[in-house]
Amino acid sequence: MTEILRVENLAKSYGTFEAVKGISFTVREGEMKALIGPNGAGKSTCFNMLTGQIRPTRGEVFLDGARITGLPPRVIWRRGVGRTFQITGTYQSMTVIENVQMALISHNRRVFSLFGRARALYRTEALALLDRVGMADQAERPCSVLAYGDLKKLELAIALAHRPRLLLMDEPTAGMAPSARIALMQLTADIVTEEGLSVLFTEHDMDVVFAHAHHIMVLNRGELIADGNAAEVRANPQVQDVYLGGGMLFKEIDHA
Amino acid sequence: MGFFIAQLLTGLANAAALFLVASGLSLIFGVTRIVNFAHGSFYMLGAYVGITLMGVLPGVLGPYLGFWGAIVLTGLIVGLAGALVEIVVLRPIYRAPELFQLVATFGVILVIQDLALMVWGAEDQMGPRAPGLRGVFRIFGEPIPKYDIVLICITPFILLALWALIAKTRLGVLVRAATQDREMVAALGVNQRWLFTGVFALGSALAGWGGALQLPKGGADLLMDFNIIGPLFVVTVIGGMGSLPGAFIAAVLISVLNVFGVAYLPQSTLVLMFVVMAIVLIVRPYGLLGKEEVAGEHGQSGAPETPIRPFGRRGRLAVAGLLLVMALLPLVTQPFALVLLTDIVIFALFAASLQFILGTGGLVSFGHAAFYGGGAYAAALMVTYAKTPMEIAFLFAPLGAGMLALVIGWFCIRLSGVYFAMLTLAFSQLVWSLVFQWRAVTRGDDGLIDIWPSAWLSGTVPYYYFTLVVGVLGILFLRTVIHAPFGYALRAGRDSARQAEAMGIDVKRVQYVAFALAGALAGLAGGLFVFAKGSVFPTELEIGKSFDALIVVFLGGVKTLSGGIVGATFMAAVEDWLTRLHYWRLLLGLLIIAVVILAPEGIVGSARRLGLRLGLVKHTEAD
Amino acid sequence: MTGANPAHGNRGPGPANRRDDHMNILRSLIAAATAVTVLSAPAFAEDPIKIGDINHYKRMAAFAEPYRKGIELAVAEVNAEGGVLGRPLEFVFPDDQGDPGEAVKIAEDLMTREGTVMFTGAILSNVGIALSSFAKEKNYLYLAGEPLADTLVWKSGNPNTFRLRVSTWVQAAMLAEQAAKTDAKTYATIAPNYSYGTEAVEAFKANLKRLKPDVEFVDEQWPALFKIDAAAEVQAIEKAKPDAIFNVTFGADLAKFVREGTDRGLFDGRGVYSMLTGEPEYLEPLGEEAPEGWYVTGYPWYDLPDGPGKDFVAAYETATGETPKMGSLVGYTMAKSVAAAIQKAGATDTASLIKAFEGLEVPSTPVGPLEYRAIDHQSTLGAYVGTLAVKDGKGVMVDWEYKNPVPYMPSDDEIRAMRPAN
């Protein structure tokens, strides 16, 4: 397996506070990799540096060997990186399908078309994507009335619209019921397998993490303290230390 | 040296009243997020109430206590008036879309103008002298009025008192909390409604004190309210909206700069302020001490907009029917109805162009008249200097305005929210003052005249058809763009700029193009205007013109597609009818306030809601 | 160029009915929730001759209200004497908000819907200029009462526009004539930064230089209209140390300028020549602080000798309970001029009225006989000039005289050269 994403010594400081302290890792093609850690560990900062929302203080990011450090989000997106956010940012004034169509319009570089009906463009493709995440029956509903879990699914559909090779998902199941979490991640895993894309995700729910991640990284206070498969991470004494209060989780997983 | 110090002192003395009024505006904005157009009216009220009290109190309390007591009391009375306005007018509409309240405050301006005229009469009133403070001190040989020195000494104490109020009291804690995070206040279990009322009253009281304190240096007149709005916004914005020390620094900066401007660049007094504001905003987009606005703070509150649809069959038939009626009208009606309709179509196109960036783009421009007037001037200049035939000159209207929008937009688009609004205001003032002062070319406020259409369009009926065709095509073009991928991208950038950027959309570039398009279409309206009236004057570029458009867009409904058109039609027709009456401003003001309270989503938005409730409109078929 | 030249001054019931139809169409078009009843035109027993006076009744209420009362007094007098052409005279007073575009719209409304025979009005010169251009384009008649701009009858003059009031050039020339008699060599000017201010300063300079070529203008101040920073202006002028000052500020600007200037001793030992300051509109608000010794143009209504001037003051005070302002005089004289013109024309169509106005003589006005000159359509209304003093806590003009404007105007040839060929 070749690596699709390589991160070298990536760091971000706010004044004297160093949110991310020079971390390095890789994501390989076709794998689902999780980035976990307690609140404030720097997971979202790290993600935002990868997709261009935040400019790193130092370090480099390579996509498929090409440097993408500090590029604006829209450029990184065009290079084939999809992204979902911890707090969803769908377009409230559009319908579900229009949200997906918007991504397709952008992908096909039709944003500056002044004529023609946007609603009529790429409907079939958009419907197929919605169908893929189980949202086809809600295609014409206004986005503003969707249930939270459905919004997350919609976000997934949007992120898949430009056929990315790497998908970054920030807390994809936050705020969802446990059963729905498993279902959503199962869906993601299926897509990963079928499309052959790679996923990097952050997650609080260890059930989800240990059920779906091929590899797990643990971030604590801006430092990467572990990077390996589930067993390796679980055995890591530093990780156990960090998750001392969360020992329960490990037990549950043991007999899961 | 003496001259320099004397100038400095003059600037500091001038800063006193300006700081008081601006701090009130800043406070109100910081907590309630209301851009209070009516703040100048409270300043004017302060001046009038002050004069009245100063005529009465000294007889009762003696000259000293009478004078200073009158000033203190004036603030309290104006504060009460402010509280009344907040409770009656603003409280019912806090849930309306952000910035909608400015329509209500515009209504308040009109009402207070006519009330002041009724109570105090039309004549200018000179302010009474401060007792014991007539005459001058000599400082380095330069005469400095004693009252100036008093003002200079008072101001820091007022700043200190305000600072103490904000830093040391519970009210202050709440105000700070509300300025930073409104939901936090609600979470603290505070009655937010009374906090808002209290802050609005305090802000108004400060304006009242400002009005009363300047009396010994000036007086009271009915133009004070509008005259102070310019400097007021400039100071608040340069200081950073919501920042009291910022307002203080900016008030001093502007006042001192003005004094030196008078001495060394006497012709520049019109523009200096706005040049400074534009420079500050370009370098420090959130003012000297302002904080960056939280994303989604503006244009996002209230219920989310419903998805848009092109007109269905019924809608298209209705529009076609209306157009048919308008086309046949010249057969049955007298010429004046056509003149009025010509004006309405022009205004509707102007409003629709603003609605395009404001509603669809979420960019609130306070300076849209720059493009309307700019277009009118572009065409008029071609006719005047190049003797261009009307047909060609007319094309220069949208072209010139579009170019202007490209230049202004290049600076403004980088900002958002209220700061974007203020920078557009500054630029439109620059354009205005350029036209006003470059007399050799623009003939200043003598205007460009005899700009009449070609023979085949001359006369009411032909020009009405011309306006109808061009105006309707312009509006249809805007609607087409709104439903096109570009319009969707613009809306995407408004709904969530982060998401749009994360799907490959260059949001700023989309907004830039939209800004230029809106400018060109406003210029088209300006071109129609200039040939309809035969002349153009700098008034078409004034702040008031921008506000007119803004008001009708909000009045019609920001979160709708046809709000601007409906609002413009409503306003033009109502004005035509009301201005025949004596106290028409009072009536118009009350009417605006009534519409705002009864229809907080604008006329179209509220009509749609009513339609939904009555089952006349289906959810997805709106607009 | 005469696509629409609608009939005006129609008689009979026709227009009234059509007006109603038209309102109905409008109302259904507006379709707005306005529950208030629509205005209804007053019902006339006898068909009056209507004139529309378009003005900034709200925006410049302090000037427009006395003007309007002057018109109303004149109309009452005319009608008491049987009206004109056997019909009553009637003025309507629409408000244009000081907006030239709005004024043009109202003018169209007046001529096509209200059935007025001509229109008058405007205080602000730019509104007057817009109305003038419009009158020419549509071939209507416009009589400008108050606007001062020289261009109205000269550079932009046209056959359809007449003007009553004495213009900027002439008033400045009268002041310059007085200034030229003194030893003052260096002058500072202060004027609001808009057309009227610039025009006045240019006129004063030109006239003074002509009369006294060695004068020098050492400082020019241009405060924004009604936004004066008086203290700074006073300091700047003081710094230039001129022998004399020419002032064009008025209204609230003037009050602030006078107060700061007096406090800081700017006017001590300096001659000040000031436009309009003696007009009650501007002088009365100054009260006891009126600057003594200034040489001004104005209106000393309190000091007029027996005759038509004093009679007008008495009649005005009886009718309104107020003392007259400059605007009262202008409004009154203007309405009287209109009546005289219609009487002379014997008809109300535009062509006859224009013909009547050219060379029209109005024999009895408060300032004596007037003529509307055929050459430039300017009336021969003059100006009162005099020195300011304070009496009984009020500013008044003393040693004043009424000056005929004609000697101060450019020569006929110069005027012909300036006026566009028609």
From TrEMBL, chain A:
Domain (ABC transporter): residue spans on this chain: 5-246
InterPro entries per record: AAA+_ATPase, ABC_AA/LPS_Transport, ABC_transporter-like_ATP-bd, ABC_transporter-like_CS, BCA_ABC_TP_C, P-loop_NTPase
GO BP of this protein: D-alanine transmembrane transport; L-alanine transport; L-isoleucine import across plasma membrane; L-valine import across plasma membrane
Keyword S-adenosyl-L-methionine in annotation: no
One cellular-component annotation, GO: plasma membrane
A Gene Ontology molecular function term of the record: L-valine transmembrane transporter activity
Sequence intervals crossing the membrane: none
Domain of life: Bacteria
Keyword annotations of the record: ATP-binding, Nucleotide-binding, Transport
PANTHER family: AMINO ACID ABC TRANSPORTER ATP-BINDING PROTEIN, CONSERVED COMPONENT OF ABC TRANSPORTER FOR NATURAL AMINO ACIDS-RELATED
Protein name stated in the entry: ABC transporter ATP-binding protein
Source organism per UniProt: Paenirhodobacter ferrireducens
UniProtKB/TrEMBL annotation, chain B:
GO molecular function terms listed in the Swiss-Prot or TrEMBL record: branched-chain amino acid transmembrane transporter activity
Localization: Cell membrane
Membrane topology recorded in Swiss-Prot or TrEMBL: Multi-pass membrane protein
Record's GO cellular component terms: plasma membrane
Protein name (Swiss-Prot/TrEMBL): ABC transporter permease
Pfam families per UniProt: BPD_transp_2
Family: Belongs to the binding-protein-dependent transport system permease family. LivHM subfamily.
Keyword Transport included in the entry's annotation: yes
Record field: transmembrane: 12-35, 42-61, 67-90, 102-122, 149-166, 194-216, 271-289, 317-338, 344-364, 392-411, 418-438, 463-490, 510-531, 551-574, 586-607
InterPro entries for the chain: ABC_transp_permease (IPR001851), BCAA_transport_permease (IPR052157), LivM-like (IPR043428)
Top-rank taxon: Bacteria
Predominant location: membrane
PANTHER family associated with the record: ABC TRANSPORTER ATP-BINDING PROTEIN (PTHR11795:SF442), BRANCHED-CHAIN AMINO ACID TRANSPORT SYSTEM PERMEASE PROTEIN LIVH (PTHR11795)
Keywords associated with the record: Amino-acid transport, Cell membrane, Membrane, Transmembrane, Transmembrane helix, Transport
Coiled-coil regions, chain positions: none
GO BP terms in the entry: amino acid transport
